[in-house]
C-alpha cells in the first residue's frame, strides 16, 4: 500500500468519529488535519485520540464551516448526528473546492432530504461514499462471495437477525427520538437494507414491518417526553427479482453470543455468517471470532469454520473490522481512481427502505416502493 498523504478533516468527533481516527491510524499516509465539533469536550477527547493513535495534533474548530474555510484538506469524514448530515453536506457540495466525502449512515433522515440531496449532489466531481461498512465485515464478504459465485445455487431467501444491546447514550441525547434519527429502522437498519440490496442484487418493491418501543428507555424522560425509538421489529422486504429478505431486530438481547446471524439460502445450499458484538460489551472484553457455516442440502453435514480477522483491526472499533476495510476502499477511490462502493444513491435507497419500514410499522400496512 502506498503511503501517499491524504489529508482528512473530521466533522463530528464523538464515539464514531474516534473509531474513524483509530482506523485511519492503521493506514499509512492518513493525516488528520482538523476536527470540527460544537462540543469542546468532544474536540479535546478526539484530539487526544489522534495524538495517541496517529501521533498527530489536528486543529480543533467549533464549526465545520470555519474548518472548511481554513483549507488544507483533501477529504472529510462526517460523523455528526444523523439530522445534521444534510446541512453539512449542503455546505460541502456548494464549496468552491470539492473534497472527497465519507459520510456516516444514514446519509439523511427524511423523504424530502433524500430528494434534495440527490439533486444537490448531481455532477459533484469528488468521491462521495456512504459509510455502510457492514458490507466489509470479513464473514459477510465470504457470504457475499458464496452467493455471487452461485455456490448456494440461486438465492431465494436472505435473513438478517440482529440481537444486540440497547442504543447507547449519545452527546446531547440525539438518538432518543425518531425526529432526529429517522427512526430505528432508518438509523441502524439502513445498514441491513443496504446489505439486502447488495446481496439480493435487485431493488425492493414492497416492505412490511411490525415493531414497537417495548422495553428500552421506558424510564427516561427528555423535555417531558419518553423516547419513541423502536427497540424490536420484524421487517419483510420483497425484491423485484422474486427474492425475499427479512430483518429480525431486537435491542434488548445483548446476552446473545452472536450479535448478527445472517443467512442466505439458495436452491442448493444455505450459507450463514455469525458475528459477535463489540468486545467491550462482553465479559473479559475479549475479541471473539466470527463464523461461517455452509449447509448444502446434499450431502448433509454443515461445514463450520472461524473467520480470521486481524486483532489490531478488530480492536480499532465496534464493527468487526469493517471500518478499516471501508477506509481502504475510500482511500483507493481518492488516490487511485478506485470505485466508490457505496454511492450516495445506495445510501439514499437504504434510507428510503428504512423510512418505508417505519411507515409500515406505524400504519400496519405494507408499503409499495
Ligand atoms: N457506521 C456505523 O456503524 C455507525 C456506528 C455508530 C454511529 N454511526 C453514525 O455516526 C454518527 C455519529 O454517531 P456517534 O455514535 O459518534 O454519536 P456521538 O453522539 O457519540 O457523536 C456525535 C458528535 O457530533 C457532534 N455534533 C453535533 N452536532 C454537530 C454538527 N452540526 N457538526 C459537527 N458535529 C456535531 C456532537 O457534539 C458529538 O461529539 C451518526 O450519524 C451515527 O448514526 C455509524
Question: Helices and strands in order, then pairings?
Answer:
Elements: E1 6-11, H1 15-24, E2 30-36, H2 40-54, E3 59-61, H3 64-70, E4 75-78, H4 85-94, E5 100-104, H5 111-120, E6 128-131, H6 138-148, E7 155-163, H7 178-181, H8 184-187, H9 190-200, E8 204-212, E9 232-239, E10 244-250, E11 258-266, E12 269-276, E13 290-296, E14 303-307, H10 311-315, H11 322-335, H12 344-363, E15 367-368
Parallel strand pairs: 1-2, 1-4, 2-3, 4-5, 5-6, 7-10
Antiparallel strand pairs: 7-11, 8-9, 8-15, 9-10, 11-12, 12-13, 13-14
Bound molecules: nicotinamide-adenine-dinucleotide.
Describe the protein's architecture and organization.
This protein is α/β, with parallel strands linked by helices and 369 residues long. The chain has 2 domains: 6-133, NAD(P)-binding Rossmann-like Domain (Rossmann fold, 3-Layer(aba) Sandwich), CATH 3.40.50; 134-310 and 344-368, Dihydrodipicolinate Reductase, domain 2, CATH 3.30.360. Helices cover 33% and strands 25% of the residues. The protein is built from 12 helices and 15 strands. The strands form 2 sheets. Strands 14-13-12-11-7-10-9-8-15 form a 9-stranded mixed sheet. Strands 3-2-1-4-5-6 form a 6-stranded parallel sheet, with helices on both faces. Helix 1 packs parallel to helix 2 (40-54) and helix 9 packs across helix 12. The termini are far apart. The relative contact order is 0.16. The mean pLDDT is 97. The protein binds nicotinamide-adenine-dinucleotide. Nicotinamide-adenine-dinucleotide binds at residues 11-17, 36-39, 42, 64, 79-82, 84, 104-105, 131, 133, 170-171, 187, 319.
Amino acid at each position: 500500500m502506498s503511503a501517499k498523504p491524504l489529508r482528512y478533516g473530521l466533522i463530528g468527533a464523538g464515539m464514531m468519529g474516534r473509531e474513524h481516527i483509530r482506523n485511519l491510524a492503521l493506514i499509512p499516509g492518513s493525516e488528520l488535519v482538523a476536527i470540527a465539533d460544537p462540543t469542546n469536550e468532544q474536540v479535546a477527547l478526539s484530539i487526544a485520540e489522534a495524538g495517541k493513535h496517529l501521533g498527530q495534533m489536528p486543529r480543533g474548530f467549533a464549526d465545520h464551516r470555519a474548518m472548511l474555510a481554513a483549507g488544507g484538506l483533501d477529504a472529510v469524514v462526517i460523523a455528526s448526528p444523523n439530522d445534521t448530515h444534510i446541512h453539512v453536506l449542503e455546505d460541502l457540495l456548494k464549496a468552491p473546492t470539492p473534497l472527497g466525502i465519507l459520510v456516516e449512515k444514514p446519509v439523511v433522515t427524511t423523504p424530502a432530504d433524500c430528494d434534495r440531496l440527490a439533486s444537490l449532489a448531481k455532477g459533484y466531481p469528488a468521491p462521495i461514499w456512504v459509510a455502510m461498512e457492514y458490507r466489509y465485515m470479513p464473514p459477510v464478504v465470504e457470504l457475499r462471495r458464496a452467493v455471487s459465485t452461485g455456490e448456494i445455487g440461486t438465492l431465494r431467501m436472505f435473513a438478517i437477525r440482529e440481537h444486540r444491546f440497547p442504543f447507547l447514550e449519545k452527546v446531547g441525547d440525539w438518538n432518543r427520538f425518531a425526529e432526529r434519527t429517522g427512526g430505528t429502522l432508518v438509523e441502524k437498519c439502513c445498514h441491513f437494507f443496504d446489505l439486502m440490496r447488495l446481496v439480493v442484487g435487485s431493488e425492493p418493491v414492497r416492505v412490511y414491518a411490525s415493531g414497537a418501543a417495548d422495553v428500552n428507555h421506558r424510564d427516561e424522560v427528555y423535555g417531558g417526553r419518553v423516547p419513541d425509538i423502536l427497540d424490536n421489529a420484524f421487517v419483510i422486504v420483497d425484491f423485484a427479482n422474486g427474492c425475499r429478505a427479512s430483518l429480525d431486530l431486537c435491542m434488548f438481547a445483548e446476552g446473545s453470543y452472536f450479535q448478527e446471524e445472517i443467512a442466505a439460502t439458495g436452491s442448493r445450499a444455505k450459507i450463514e455468517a455469525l458475528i459477535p458484538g463489540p468486545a467491550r460489551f462482553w465479559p473479559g472484553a475479549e475479541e471473539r471470532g466470527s463464523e461461517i457455516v455452509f449447509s448444502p442440502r446434499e450431502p448433509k453435514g454443515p461445514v463450520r469454520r472461524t473467520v480470521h480477522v486481524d486483532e489490531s483491526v478488530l480492536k480499532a472499533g465496534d464493527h468487526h473490522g469493517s471500518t478499516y476495510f471501508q477506509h481502504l476502499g475510500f482511500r483507493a477511490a481518492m488516490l487511485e481512481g478506485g470505485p466508490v462502493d457505496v454511492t450516495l444513491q445506495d445510501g439514499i435507497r437504504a434510507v428510503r427502505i428504512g423510512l418505508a419500514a417505519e411507515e409500515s410499522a406505524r400504519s400496519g400496512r405494507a408499503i409499495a416502493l
